[in-house]
Amino acid sequence: MNEIKPLRPAADELLSADAFEAAIRAVGTERYHDKHAFHKLLHGGKLSKAQVQAWALNRYCYQEAVPRKDAAFMSRVHDRELRRAWISRIHDHDGLGDEPGGIERWLILTDGLGLDREYVTSMRGALPATRHIVESYVRFVREQPLVVAVASSLTELFAPSIHRERIAGMLENYAFIGDDVMAYFKRRLTQAPRDAEFALAYVKANAKTRAEQDACVAAVRFKCDVLWAQLDVLNHAYVTPGLIPPGAFVPAP
Questions:
Q1: Virtual torsion, Cα 30, 36, 41, 44, nearest 10 deg
Q2: Interior angle at CA 148, CA 147 and CA 149, nearest 5
Q3: Is residue 102 scored above 80 in pLDDT?
Q4: Is the Cβ–Cβ distance between 77 and 86 less than 8 Å?
Q5: How far apart are CA 28 and CA 163, in angstroms?
Q6: Cis peptide before 241 (omega within 30 of 0)
Q7: Residue 170 belongs to what domain range?
Q8: Average pLDDT over residues 86-92
Q9: Neighbour-count burial of 141, counting CB atoms closer than 10 A to its CB (0-12 exposed, 13-18 middle, 19+ buried)
Q10: How many domains does the chain have?
Q11: pLDDT tens figures, 26-42
């Protein structure tokens, strides 16, 4: 009598490379923040300029944290080749030589929205919850095993589609948005796929057990939650019910 094999691998059985990648990608299908109500309002032209300002101001906290989390990751890496590959992420955001970097391009966006640059970079007008959410990501990358920390970056697999939607939607729907302030998102159309390809290959090669594979999938889920939660608090403060906490940015009447 032929043995009937289960359709799914056992809970402790190592997933094939293809099944592992499929599990990672399934997280994005289910949880990526392109499905959030605030995202749909933003890209659909349904927000006021003040609400777009609040989004850009708070999102700066995340942009500023990205090179810090990458530096925290690199401080733990003894593999020189991995450091050589990963450092490009810091250069992408902080800049190198004549290349200004993604943080500068984000500040061009906030400049274009009429926000004072010093106020933006001080982050004193950001929502308290935004700052806590962002720092939870930095801590996660600092504290988790290297392969799990790398896996948390794999939301970049899903980023190009949201960037294309953002560029088209905001240019079409907001008269106060010009092509020049979309430079950050245009650059990420090439940077994000490059970074995601490297990280995915690393994770597939270095998650050696089913437990490590499951932890990597959970890391992608955690990162999706970080991105989703940032939109949750923005929506709560600036859309509905519109409860802005003390000290946070208050749009001009």
A1: -10
A2: 90
A3: yes
A4: yes
A5: 15
A6: yes
A7: 25-238
A8: 97
A9: buried
A10: 1
A11: 999 999 999 999 999 99
Q: What is the pLDDT of residues 49-70, one digit of tens each?
A: 999 999 999 999 999 999 999 9
Please give the single-letter amino acid code of residue 2. N
The reply to whether 184 falls in a domain is yes
Q: Residue 71: CB partners within 8 Å, gap ≥ 6? A: 90
pTM, entire model: 0.92
Instruction: Give the separation between CA 215 and CA 67, rounded to whole angstroms.
Output: 23
Instruction: Please count the other Cβ atoms lying within 10 Å of the Cβ belonging to residue 137.
Output: 22
Say which CATH number the domain at 176 has: 1.20.910.10
Report if residue 9 sits inside a domain.
no
Tell me how far the alpha carbon of residue 149 is from its chain's centroid.
14
Note whether residue 12 is domain-resident: no
For the chain, first and last CA: distance in Å?
78
**What is the average pLDDT across 146-152?**
98
C-alpha–C-alpha distance, residues 29 and 224, integer Å: 11
Domain-located, residue 2: no
pLDDT at residue 7, rounded to an integer: 44
Give alpha helix (H) positions in the chain: 17-31, 37-43, 49-74, 80-94, 102-112, 117-122, 128-143, 146-151, 159-173, 183-206, 210-238
Residue 181's pLDDT is what? 83
Residue showing tokens 């896996």: 151
Q: How many whole angstroms separate alpha carbon 34 and alpha carbon 9?
A: 31
- HSE-up of residue 179 (Cα within 13 Å, Cβ side): 0
